Each structure stands twice: as C-alpha cells, then as structure tokens.
UniProtKB/TrEMBL annotation, chain A:
It comes from Galbibacter pacificus. It catalyses: 2 pyruvate + H(+) = (2S)-2-acetolactate + CO2. Dimer of large and small chains. SUPFAM superfamilies: ACT-like. Catalyzes the conversion of 2 pyruvate molecules into acetolactate in the first common step of the biosynthetic pathway of the branched-amino acids such as leucine, isoleucine, and valine. This is Acetolactate synthase small subunit. GO terms for molecular function: acetolactate synthase activity.
UniProtKB/TrEMBL annotation, chain B:
Residues 406-553 form the Thiamine pyrophosphate enzyme TPP-binding domain. CDD domains: TPP_AHAS, TPP_PYR_POX_like. Its cofactor is Mg(2+); thiamine diphosphate. Pfam families: TPP_enzyme_C, TPP_enzyme_M, TPP_enzyme_N. GO terms for molecular function: acetolactate synthase activity. Residues 20-135 form the Thiamine pyrophosphate enzyme N-terminal TPP-binding domain. Belongs to the TPP enzyme family. Its EC number is 2.2.1.6. This is Acetolactate synthase. It comes from Galbibacter pacificus. Binds 1 Mg(2+) ion per subunit. Binds 1 thiamine pyrophosphate per subunit.
Length: 175, 577
C-alpha cells in the first residue's frame, strides 16, 4: 500500500454558485476527509482558486484531481506535496486584556512567535499568527495555560514553486 | 434562430422578441431540434406545460406515469437515436423522482437534459410547498446542473445544457427553473453554445501516442480488443470494423458496447465480464496486447484488478482523461475522440491475420458451447430457458430488433444471446443496474427509432418496478413488444443466494399477479406461454403485430446464468457451472 501524505490541491475555476458543493462531493463520494479548504480570488480576473488540503495516497489524489478537473466549470486542477509549495495558515487568539499586564510571559510568547497584536480593547486583545500549522499549534499550547477566550485557525493558503499555466489555457480558448 | 411561431406584432427589437421564460424554454428546445419530451406536470412547472399545450403541434410531450419513467424513456430515446433525451418534471417529488434515471444516465454516459420547475425565487429556502434542493441533490449525478432564477438566463443556460449533455463524454444535465423565471418576460434571442472556456469536450490528440499505439499493435502476437460504448457514442463503428479486419484482431465487447460490430462478424469473439463469454475472459489474461476502446474497465468487466491482464501491454483509447489509470494502468493512453484516434492509427497498422491466436478463441467457444450455450439455447429439459426465448426473438426479428433489457438474469442472458446486425441495438442499464429501466426505456427507444422493431425483455421483478408505464403505452399507442421472463423469483439475487449464501432465499421469491390480465386492462394484446411447443408461434405473433404486445413466458424457476466470474475473482477463474 502506498503511504498517506499531505497534498495541496489547487483548483482554478469559474466563480459559480454550486461548484463548491460539486467539488466537495468528489471527496465525499470517496470517503476522503478534507483537512482544510480555502476559496479566494486568484491572480486572474474572474477566476476563483480553491486550495484544498488532503491526507491520502498520491494515487487517490491524482484520481480526485482528475475528477475535479472533469467538472465543467473547473479550468484546471493541480496537486503538490508540501515540498513543492509555499504555504501558511493563520491563527487568531482572543485573550483577556488584563493578562497582557498580569502575565508578563504572554508578551514574550507574542514576541518569540513573531506574532502580531491585531487589536486591543479594555476587555480583550487579539493576536494573529501566520505560519505552518505546527507553529500555530505550538503557540496555542504556550497560551493555553493563561486561558484563551477564542481561537480559530484558517485553511491553508498556498502558492506552488512551479508555474500553474492558467493564463495560457484561457488565452488558448480565446484564439 | 427563426421564431416562426411568434406573433409578428410582438417583435419590436428585430431578432429579439419579448416572450415569457416558459415560452422561451419551448423555443430553446425547438432550436435544439428536440421533437419529443417526456415528463409529468405539476405546480411549479405549470407555465412551461401551458406553453407545451400551445406548441403541441410542434413539440410532442409524452405523459409518463411516473417521473422515473420519463427519465428512462428519455434515455431509451437518446441511446437508440444518438440525440439528447429530454425529461421534465415539477419541483419537489417530481424532481426527486428523476434522480434514479439521472444517475443511470450519468454512469452510462447518456446525453439527457432534465428540466424541473422550482418554487418562485422569493420562496427559495423557505421550505415552501414542493420545494426541494434539486440542484444540491442532483449534483453528484449530473455532468452539470444549474438553477435559473431570472428569465433572461434561459436561452444561454439551455444552450449550454444541450452542448454539455451531448459533447465530449455525454451525460445528464439538470436545469431547475424557478416559477417567477417562467412567468417573467424578456427579450428572447437564441444562440447555440459551441464552446465553454473551462470545458474541453475532447482532449487534443497526442500524435506520438498514435505512433506508439500502432507500433504496439504491429508488434503484438496475441492482441485483443475490448470495446465499450465509446465506439457507439463516438460513432466509430466503421473505424472499429476497419481496425479489426485490417489487423485481424479478435474483438470482444462490454455490455454497453454490444451491437457496435455485427454479432455475426467472424472476429467478434463475444462479451467480456462477469457473465460474459468464456474465451474473451480467459484470454484477457493470455493476450500480449489489450486494446481498450472507449471503455472504462468497470469492476464487472475486470473482476479482481490485481490479476487482470497483468501480462499484457494495455492500450487505452479514451475521451475522458479521468478514466486513464483509474482502474487499470494504461501503458499507452491514447486520449481523444475514439473515431478520430482510430482513424489516425489505422493507416499505420499492418495487415495481419493472427489465425492461431483467433483459433484459441474458437476453441474456448467450443468448450462454452458444450457446457453452457447448448443447454441454454437448445435445452433438453422440460422447463423453458431464458436463452431459448432470446433465440426465438433473434430468429423472428432477423437480428434487426432493438433489444431493451432490464436488470438481472434475463439481462445477462439477453446480452449474451441477442444477435445484432445494427449498431445502437442493445439498450440496457449497465453501470447503475437499474431495475425498472426497460419498460419506459423501450417506449423512448421506439419513439427514437420508430421504423425499428423494439423488444423489451424484462424479469418479473423489474417489470413491477415501472409497470405503471403500460399506461403510457396505452395512451400513446407506441407499438413496443414486451416480453416478461417470469421465474417468480428475483433470479439474480436468488442465484447469488444459492451460490454464496447457502440457498437462504431471503426475500427473493415473488408472488406475482396475473400479468396477462394487467396488460389487457390497458388494452394491450397479451399472451402467456408455458410450453416449449407454443413459444415460436407466440414470438412470431408478437413480432408480426403492428401494435403493442405483451408476452409472458414462464421459465424455469431456478436456472442460473453461467459462465460467471464470482465477485472479486480473477477473469481466469470464470466458472462454467
């Protein structure tokens, strides 16, 4: 059996209602869990980009990408390993404001993790940390003893080291 | 397009004419060359039905007795004619009743457009009467789907729907139209869709693969072709025949590929798969080159993948890139429309005979004939076999009938023994295995090919799943011939219970009604045959009738279909008994 690995699937598509459902259904049909999902605009006007992270075999990933690409509104889909991409996630921590003054260690945690204070109000302050998932997890563990009021982590966003030639595909269509 | 039917005074903007969304739907269908639609009215689609009434002399609407029947009829129509089948239903239960047929069309790559009514835009999401999220429900089983909430979208979306349904690897498309969009008026203008930027119907042919494929064919000592429905969908029957004859390659077929090459062609070596012929199954694991043409290596074809054709180099001619290496590794994938790729390969292929290799198929056929075929077609026992009924139909139809089969033992027997001279003659539910498919599909098939004889062969189980469509036959007077092979059992499940579940016949024995009386209730001429000596005359009488005809044949209760590759076994382990 081929071993499971983390793959980042990048899908360039038209921005249409229902496509998310269609794409997620491809994973559902194969009983494969989506680790993270992000939908945003891409470098091309009116083209959306899905960034989907899965942990499965390369064989399954290739087959899934084939099925995704087959969808009418998908322009092109790619998959990459972690080594082939630059990627990060963002975590937001909401913490009681008094701790910033009562617990000096918190300031060190913020500094040591190269994180940013997004906002400070009389009741709470918010720290944002971007990076690899392990880095955000580590910061979470460090802050946990002091009490985290709210925590959220985004899906992965990623760019590939190699080129993804969407513009060429769209240009070909116009010819 | 020319909109002849519109009142001139309404035309204020030259080509564009102000009409309702519902009327626009009809004009779109007419512009796509649609003559027949199958469906069932209801609240949310009433504006469209109102227009169907006005256009009834131009667009023939067939009222089925259930929406599932409408989809299967549309499938039968599409499969036999190569055109897009159209089915319509209202929102809610009307729409959900389409799902089985849509799923069937998706897995069997049948071009179909389904149009559903939907509650008005302002009611969406309010759990309104007969509201259901049909776009959400149908997403996994459609090639594409879309909800129209604004009348002005209708021409563009319907044009896209037909383009997507029929191009590339065909499939079903569902268009859901809210009631307000059916009522609203807009400036109508129809343009056919010819391209979509994110959709490539057929991949660009890689010439190097053509050369590699031809070299592999020329080098092979024991080449074997397995063709599928791609040959029929791609209209590549002539190219297939030319390749088979020029290179002298024995050619076998999947059930959906049946009839693309005449059954009597000397190099047609029969069916592959679970109940396929002995030779092509066994020799799949002895050939040195497996040439797969427009087929997708379904598990019912391959059996255990880890022992499937491991010794052979695999050439895979395929239009859908997602099928390459999905189940079986392709040493040489040849992507593209199979008609185009075969035409390119043909001139590069050397003439050959492969006589010794072909003889191996003939020897295997002799074994199968003695152990299985002889007993199926010329039985010595008292009870009637399904095989001899199919053989009678072959003779009475001169191998020219369209055979529409349902799902189960009778289907396997029909596919094994039916003889076809003409392509698009074997209509059956392959991938989904939908019981209840045949009766409505036969209605559509007869309407799609009115000059051809259409015979539905159905088991007693599947028949009762869509038996209500006798009403459609009665009302439309469509002259289909219906043969029910009655063994008072869900025969295929019973066979598995016998072989793999120690004869525990859980819920497979059926207490059946008097089928003849039921058919006669619909004023369909009906007959029942229980003895061999009455069979030939009954089949001939049925085929000679200019009207619909129902024939029930009582067959042996506990016959099994052989050969058989048990689930998960290798094609080499095919059983003859």
């Amino acid at each position: 059996m081929e071993e499971n690995k983390t793959f980042t699937i990048s899908v360039y598509s038209e921005n249409n209602v229902g496509l998310l459902n269609r794409i997620s259904g491809i994973f559902l049909k194969r009983h494969i869990n989506i680790e993270s999902l992000n939908v945003s605009k891409s470098e091309i006007e009116n083209v959306s980009k899905f960034t989907i992270v899965v942990n499965t075999t390369e064989d399954w990933t290739r087959k899934i990408v084939g099925q995704v690409e087959k969808q009418i509104e998908v322009i092109k889909a790619y998959y990459h390993t972690d080594e082939e991409t630059i990627f990060l996630e963002t975590g937001l921590f909401k913490i009681a404001s008094n701790l910033l003054f009562d617990e000096r260690q918190i300031q060190n945690i913020i500094k040591d993790n190269h994180s940013d204070i997004v906002t400070v109000s009389p009741d709470f302050f918010v720290i944002s940390k971007s990076g690899r998932r392990e880095e955000i997890e580590e910061m979470y563990e460090q802050l946990k003893p002091y009490g985290i009021m709210q925590f959220v982590r985004s899906g992965r966003v990623s760019v590939s080291k190699s080129e993804m030639q969407i513009s060429n595909i769209l240009k070909e269509f116009q010819l | 397009m020319e909109v002849k039917t519109l009142k001139k005074e309404e035309s204020k903007t030259g080509k564009k004419i102000r009409i309702s969304g519902a009327e626009a739907v009809i004009h779109c269908l007419l512009a796509e060359g649609i003559e027949t639609v199958y469906g069932y009215p209801g609240g949310a689609i009433m504006p469209i039905y109102d227009e169907l009434y006005k256009f009834r002399d131009k667009l023939h609407h067939v009222l089925t007795r259930h929406e599932q029947g409408a989809t299967h009829a549309a499938q039968g129509y599409a499969r036999v004619s190569g055109k897009v089948g159209v089915a319509m239903a209202t929102s809610g239960p009307g729409a959900t009743n389409l799902i089985t047929g849509i799923a069937d069309a998706q897995i069997d790559s049948t071009p179909m457009v389904c149009i559903t009514g939907q509650v008005a835009r302002h009611l969406l999401g309010s759990d309104a009467f007969q509201e259901t999220d049909i776009v959400g429900i149908s997403t996994p089983v459609t090639k594409w789907n879309y909800q129209i909430t604004n009348a002005a979208e209708i021409p563009e979306i319907i044009a896209k729907a037909f383009y997507i349904a029929r191009s590339g690897r065909p499939g079903p498309v569902l268009i859901d139209i809210t009631k307000n969009a059916q009522f609203d008026e807009f400036d109508f203008d129809y343009q056919k869709c010819t391209a979509i930027r994110s959709y490539k119907p057929a991949p660009v042919v890689d010439e190097s693969k053509i050369t590699e494929a031809a070299e592999a064919i020329n080098k092979a000592k024991k080449p074997m072709i397995v063709w599928g429905q791609g040959i029929i969908l791609g209209k590549a029957e002539e190219e297939l025949k030319a390749l088979v004859e020029k290179a002298g390659i024995p050619a076998a077929w999947t059930i959906l590929g049946a009839s693309a090459l005449s059954s009597s062609h000397p190099l047609n070596v029969g069916m592959v798969g679970m109940h396929g012929n002995y030779g092509p199954n066994i020799l799949t694991n002895e050939c040195d080159l497996l040439i797969a043409l427009g087929m997708r290596f379904d598990d019912r074809v391959t059996g255990d993948l880890s022992t499937y054709a491991k010794q052979a180099k695999v050439l895979h001619f395929e239009i859908d890139p997602a099928e390459i290496n999905k189940n079986v590794h392709a040493d040489i994938p040849v992507l593209g429309n199979v008609k185009e790729t075969l035409a390119k390969v043909l001139p590069l292929v050397n003439e050959n005979k492969h006589e010794a290799w072909h003889n191996e198929f003939k020897e295997k056929y002799k074994i199968e004939f003695d152990k299985v075929i002889k007993n199926d077609l010329h039985p010595k026992k008292e009870g009637l076999t399904m095989g001899e009924v199919i053989e009678q139909i072959n003779q009475a139809s001169n191998h020219e009938a369209v055979m529409v089969s349902d799902v189960g033992q009778h289907q396997m027997i029909a596919c094994r023994y039916a003889k076809f001279n003409t392509t698009k003659s074997n209509i059956t539910s392959g991938g989904l295995g939908t019981m209840g498919f045949a009766l409505p599909a036969a209605i559509g098939a007869k309407m799609g090919a009115p000059k051809r004889e259409v015979v539905a062969v159905i088991g007693d189980g599947g028949y009762q799943m869509t038996i209500q469509e006798l009403g459609t036959i009665f009302q439309t007077k469509v002259p289909v011939k219906i043969v029910v092979l009655n063994n008072d059992f869900l025969g295929m499940v019973r066979q598995w219970q016998q072989l793999f579940f120690d004869k525990r016949y859980a819920s497979t024995e059926m207490t059946n009604p008097d089928f003849v009386t039921i058919a006669e209730g619909y004023h369909i001429q009906a007959k029942k045959v229980t003895k061999r000596e009455d069979l030939a005359a009954a089949v001939e009488e049925m085929m000679a009738s200019p009207h619909a005809y129902f024939l029930e044949v009582r067959v042996e209760k506990e016959d099994n279909v052989f050969p058989m590759i048990p689930t998960g076994a290798s094609v080499s382990d095919i059983r003859l008994s």
